[in-house]
Amino acid sequence: MSHTKQLSDTAISILDLVPVLAGHTPADSFKNTLDLAQHAEKWGYTRYWMAEHHNMPGIASSATSILIGYVANGTKTIRVGSGGIMLPNHAPLVVAEQFGTLETLYPGRIDLGLGRAPGTDHVTAMALRRDLQGAGEDFPANVEELRSYLAPASTGQRVRAVPGEGLNIPIWLLGSSTFSAQLAGILGLPFAFASHFAPTLLHTALKVYRDSFQPSETLKEPYAMAGINLVAAETDEEARHLATSLYMSFLNVIRGTARQMQPPVDSMEDKWDLSEMYAVQQMLLYSFIGSPTTVKSELQQFLDSTGVDEVMITSHIYDHAARLRSYEILADIKKGTIG
């Protein structure tokens, strides 16, 4: 599949997991999130999404809709949304009311990305939902119910989302498999793939989405986004050093150990064994780590192979200033001022 899409004409956005840094508090994380969003707006990023995760000491974005309001209130033009709301954890009406409220407060700036995973472990999912029966299987029906609340009210409709009805907030379907890809295609909705941590089915899911796409009032042509990890710095060596925080975060994922984000280390050799290193590297296949020149070249190859319309960036970098710089470098690469 050949594409002529260039980074300069590709929308770039940010996925913020609102990391809790070792030695710091969630309050510090929220301040960093707003600061990053304000910089992202200035640098020309398209949207700023936060993800719903629960029972994770290193991630502070559990109350996602509240944080969306916090960021939207502290910015002026950038789109703010969820990447995503894990719909099985919530009644569709509650989501419609929350995002209807957000859209009413910040009109034309709110995105609603939906996922069908729990965003946590089995025990915590039970604590969230009280009942796991049919949680994933009901996703298509729940999506349609949610969309009905955000559509104009119909005659005789007994349950209404106020605020929410008639606002037609942009809905995205998110996924790491072909399930949501096909559903997004059938419904004519934009689709975002979680290739920043589940890269295996990226190309398959994109093909399924494009092949199954049916034009709708929302979209006339398919619109696909892919998530990637980015650690950009002045040199390859500095970027590789900063990326050790990313590696340690994912090492904890595969070990099932929950920790706050750790500062970078000089070497990972004594942190993991060969099988763990391989597992982490497989999860982080679409990670772009290096100098502006390195990042630019590798990102263009990614665009050439996927043809995605938008790239959503997440940067697991411990130092806030270095994290800001990573996003600034990408913005400058897109503008053609460096790299």
TrEMBL record:
GO terms for cellular component: cytosol. SUPFAM superfamilies: Bacterial luciferase-like. GO terms for molecular function: oxidoreductase activity, acting on paired donors, with incorporation or reduction of molecular oxygen. It comes from the Bacteria. Residues 23-309 form the Luciferase-like domain. InterPro entries: Bact_Lucif_Oxidored, CmoO-like, Luciferase-like_dom, Luciferase-like_sf. To bacterial alkanal monooxygenase alpha and beta chains. This is Luciferase-like monooxygenase. It comes from Pontibacter fetidus.
